[in-house]
Amino acid sequence: MNLDDVKNPKELGDYLKNLRLKKNISLEEINQETKIRIKYLNAIEEGNFDAIPGGEVYLKGFLKNYAEAVGINSNEILKKYKEISAPKSQEFQQENTAVKKDRRLIIDEERPKSKVPKIPLLLVGLVFVIALTTLSFLKTQPDTSLEPPKTTVNSDLPSENDTSPTLETEEERKEELLNQISLASDDGRNITYTVSGNSINVKFEVINDRCWIRVNSDGIVTFEGTLNKGESKSFEAKNKLTIKIGNPPVVKVTLNGKEIEIPGNYPKTLLIMRNQ
């Protein structure tokens, strides 16, 4: 299959997989070179692009790194992905327009042709007289609003010793909101995250080779040096943490307890800011 014949994500995945097999390259080799997890590499070859986390930014980055790992032009792969993803939204719009048109036709056919008769003025006057009579009757009734309200005992109410079953759920929800992490931007060289916790905590682990890093915590350089394979280091900031990474593919980065992806095999700048 030629790249020009690819019409959908499934065929694009098959195309990439066939190229990899022809060059006798394993998924493990691509994983070691790109640091993309095996399950995401399988998702690419299956055309299951919705399984890639991070949206369009990460998907395009994964496709670019995969293509470079098997020795093909990554720009052509990204161009083909753009071609096959655009018709899908156009087709959806056309189908949605057709459904709305059919719905209008059905409503027009079912709508009665006869006009609703106007209410005679006599009926309006009769309603007005009834309303005045009712109002006069209510004014003549004794006012019972001053009577003390009756007290009822609800046996289903919990006692003072009962513990609300929702307390633990509320605490977990609050903790989850405090630790919320969002990808703000990624232009290929600079990656920005925002967090909602009380502080910023980042852990670096070198899983292969070695990596040079420079850390600026709240405007102060707190570390600059090279970490070797198997070494790890943690950094903390109150509002802002800037980390320059010399060799992103060989490190595992954990932000506030959650692992984040640093795609690409060239130096990156990671900026993390806390929501005020």
Any key phrases for this structure?
about 25% strand; four-stranded antiparallel beta sheet; alpha+beta; about 280 residues; 434 Repressor (Amino-terminal Domain); six-stranded mixed beta sheet
Shape: flat
Strand content: 15-25%
Overall helicity? 40-55%
Between the first and last Cα atoms, what is the distance in angstroms?
53 Å
Mean pLDDT: 79
User: Helix count, per DSSP?
Assistant: 7
Low-confidence stretches: 151-158
User: What's the helix-strand series?
Assistant: HHHHHHHEEEEEEEEEE
Mind describing the biggest β-sheet?
6 strands, mixed
Rg, alpha carbons: 32 Å
Number of strands: 10
SS-derived structural category: alpha+beta
What is the strand arrangement across the widest sheet? 1-2-10-7-4-5
Would you mind describing this structure in some detail?
The chain has 276 residues and is an alpha+beta fold. Among the domains are: 3-84, lambda repressor-like DNA-binding domains (434 Repressor (Amino-terminal Domain)), CATH 1.10.260.40; 176-274, no CATH class. It contains seven helices and ten strands. A six-stranded mixed sheet has the order 1-2-10-7-4-5, with no helix packed on it. A four-stranded antiparallel sheet has the order 6-3-8-9, with no helix packed on it. Strand 4 and strand 5 (220-228) form a beta hairpin. Helix 1 packs across helix 3 (38-46) and helix 4 (56-69) runs antiparallel to helix 5 (74-110). The longest helix is centred in the middle third of the chain and has 37 residues, at 74-110. The protein is flat and about 95 Å long.
